[in-house]
Design brief:
By secondary structure, this protein is an alpha/beta fold. The protein has helices spanning 3-12, 25-34, 41-52, 56-60, 68-71, 81-86, 118-128, 148-167, 186-206, 233-247, 264-276, 290-302, 308-324, and strands at 17-20, 61-66, 91-95, 100-103, 106-112, 132-139, 171-178, 215-216, 254-257, 283-288. An 8-stranded parallel barrel has the order 1-2-3-6-7-8-9-10, surrounded by 6 helices. It binds 1,3-dihydroxyacetonephosphate.
């Protein structure tokens, strides 16, 4: 087993999942202002440290993805944030892309940037304790989009990123996110997501990336948020499995879904059904941002000095997601 494969499995085995706490300062500012908390470096750290020092970390979370600001911060106990995370047995990850920018010649679409100087940044993140990384490509669906240009340029960037990350001894999370915004059907989401993922693997293979040492972070197959044709959760799980079975090479150890704007319970229930119906050899778990943090953030914002209530809320959410990653979740458990 390669070292990278071992790290990937350590992060996602036994129902463990990933806490995506890698919101950029811009996104985190929106999240904090929505609950009437001022977005300062201290407050951003205070919320994140509340989660990282909760009991649920060691039982349910295998990896945490940080943003550049956080990986360089020091916790209130004087430990660095990566040390605080590894003291709970969790692997530290870091977002290394520098964001999605307008794509030249198709400016309504996005290309994710961050390759320039990446090799040196990776060395630095490794020395700070990071052992895995994230890069997110983003695609929207409409009659015209995504174009072949967006699909191939983002796949190329994801492959160049992954090769550099593995060279530096870390596991790349490959995240091609097909957004749920729009009125498209679930079948269109299925077709687009399959094409996007296939293209990513085509490029990863050209770039000689070790597929046993990556984690794929895709969207689930959902109808657009404005579509009138909603499908059942059972259908979401079956279409998601169909997509991944037909587009992901079998060497890949695991898949960790993003929540993408689903509610906390919806993201949990869909993951649970995916695991109940899982007819693949892939581990299927979560790498949620909003669907792990939303309720905890609301509770925390009521009194940011009082950590326990927010930690209890986070522990519950992480437990529910971990049960779902084993196909053992049930709605009744939500109120216990
Ligand atoms: P959400 O689960 O909120 O979609 O965030 C996951 C993520 O990391 C997006 O890049």
């Amino acid at each position: 087993m390669s070292e990278l494969n071992k790290i990937a499995l350590q992060i996602i085995s036994n129902g463990k999942g990933i806490l995506a706490a890698d919101e950029s300062n811009g996104t985190m500012t929106k999240r904090l202002e929505a609950v009437n908390v001022k977005s300062t470096p201290e407050n951003r750290l205070s919320f994140r440290e509340t989660l990282f020092s909760s009991e649920g970390m060691k039982d349910y979370i295998g990896g945490v993805i940080l943003y550049d600001e956080t990986i360089n911060q020091t916790s209130s106990s004087g430990k660095s944030i990566p040390d605080l995370i590894s003291s709970t047995g969790v692997v530290t990850g870091i977002k290394v892309d520098t964001g999605a920018k307008d794509l030249a010649n198709s400016p309504e679409e996005k290309i994710t940037e961050g390759l320039d100087g990446l090799r040196d940044r990776l060395k630095q993140y490794y020395s700070l304790g990071a052992r895995f990384t994230k890069w997110r490509g983003v695609y929207s669906i409409s009659e015209k989009y995504p174009t072949k240009l967006a699909i191939s340029s983002n796949a190329h960037a994801l492959a160049r990123y992954s090769a550099l990350v593995q060279e530096s001894g870390m596991v790349p999370i490959v995240e091609p996110e097909v957004l749920m915004d729009g009125n498209h059907s679930a079948n269109i989401c299925l077709n687009v997501t399959s094409e996007v993922i296939r293209k990513c693997f085509e490029e990863l293979i050209i770039h000689k990336v070790d597929l046993s040492g990556i984690i794929l972070k895709p969207n689930m197959i959902l109808s657009g948020n404005l579509s009138k044709d909603k499908i059942s959760k059972e259908e979401v799980s079956l279409k998601t499995l169909e997509c991944l079975k037909n587009s992901v090479p079998k060497e890949v150890p695991g898949i960790a879904f993003l929540s993408g704007g689903q509610s906390e319970v919806e993201a949990t229930e869909n993951l649970n059904l995916i695991n109940i119906n899982n007819n693949t050899n892939f581990i299927m778990t979560y790498s949620y941002g909003r669907a792990l943090q939303q309720s905890a953030l609301k509770v925390w914002s009521k009194n940011i000095k009082e950590k326990e209530a927010a930690q209890n809320t986070f522990n519950h959410r992480a437990k529910m997601c971990t049960l779902a990653a084993q196909g053992k979740w049930a709605i009744e458990l939500e109120n216990k």
